[in-house]
């Protein structure tokens, strides 16, 4: 009887047992996972005059163990912890620029953080979410915040004339509102960075104001150039960039019309209206005509 039994008859049950054992191990591994962080909310820039709001959003997938803890780190230092299984459930750690407020639940943990007064400081904030044992699976995400007061509005261009003539010198100014660090300004003429002629050099760099009560500074930069194009318009751009990490830029674009015939700036500047200019033209024409007639009679 034993001679007629095939070897696979002995191996099949044992192999099936191994498969079931491996399947159970795989199922246990799948179940023991951490929550998924769906979104980490950290502003790219933070104003040191007010607290920064941070939020960590997470979700429990089907089969995940219960939430064990949510921890916030500033750089490598833990600053806040939420553990729903303990009382009290939240704990703040005393560090420089610590947490001023924190609210957490099973799906979200948000905190408010005081920022240092050192502008252009770059800070990393990490949210770490872990599930209950025995494995205590952990996931985390990190984002960076730069301490800066960014420009709230586009730069302002002033001194713009209604139109210009070929060969005319144009003087404009570009200025920004208070910010920190202060912005550096670059002018572009028809898409190219300005190129100051030596005879026109005057403040060919960005000027910065003194600091206000909050340490913020405004920037400005004049532009003087001579109209040489024969096109009907000149494209101008004022670009203000703060040297943060990453840099922050705002810009303003405008078009300057180039007149085909001499404009009446000399008359409009004196306050003359079109009718008085017409009368002056008629009188001048009559005077020229009279002088010409007198000259012709005297030649006879």
Automatic annotation (TrEMBL):
Taxonomic superkingdom: Eukaryota
SUPFAM superfamilies (UniProt xref): Immunoglobulin
Keywords: Disulfide bond
Segments forming domain Ig-like: 155-255
Gene3D superfamilies: Immunoglobulins
The protein's name in its UniProt record: Ig-like domain-containing protein
């Amino acid at each position: 009887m034993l001679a007629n039994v095939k070897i696979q008859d002995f191996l099949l049950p044992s192999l099936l047992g191994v498969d079931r054992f491996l399947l159970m191990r795989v199922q246990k591994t799948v179940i023991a996972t951490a929550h998924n962080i769906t979104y980490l909310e950290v502003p790219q820039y933070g104003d040191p005059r007010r607290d920064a709001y941070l939020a960590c959003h997470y979700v429990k997938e089907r089969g995940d163990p219960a939430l064990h803890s949510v921890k916030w780190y500033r750089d490598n230092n833990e600053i806040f912890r939420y553990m729903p299984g303990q009382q009290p459930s939240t704990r703040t750690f005393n560090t420089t620029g610590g947490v001023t407020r924190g609210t957490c639940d099973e799906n979200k943990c948000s905190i408010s953080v005081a920022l240092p007064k050192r502008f252009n400081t770059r800070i990393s904030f990490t949210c770490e979410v872990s599930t209950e044992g025995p494995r205590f699976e952990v996931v985390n995400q990190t984002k960076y915040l730069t301490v800066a007061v960014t420009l709230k509005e586009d730069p302002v261009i002033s001194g713009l004339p209604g139109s210009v003539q070929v060969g005319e010198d144009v003087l404009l100014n570009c200025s920004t509102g208070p910010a920190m660090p202060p912005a550096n300004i670059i002018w572009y003429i028809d898409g190219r960075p300005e190129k100051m002629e030596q005879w026109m050099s005057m403040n060919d760099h960005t000027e910065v104001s003194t600091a206000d009560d909050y340490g913020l500074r405004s920037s400005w930069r004049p532009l003087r150039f001579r109209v040489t194009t024969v096109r009907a318009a000149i494209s101008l751009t004022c670009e203000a960039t703060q040297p943060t990490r990453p840099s922050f830029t705002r810009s303003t674009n405008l078009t300057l019309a180039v007149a085909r015939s001499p404009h009446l700036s000399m008359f409009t500047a004196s306050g003359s209206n079109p009718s008085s200019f017409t009368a002056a033209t008629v009188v001048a024409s009559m005077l020229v005509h009279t002088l010409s007639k007198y000259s012709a009679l005297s030649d006879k």
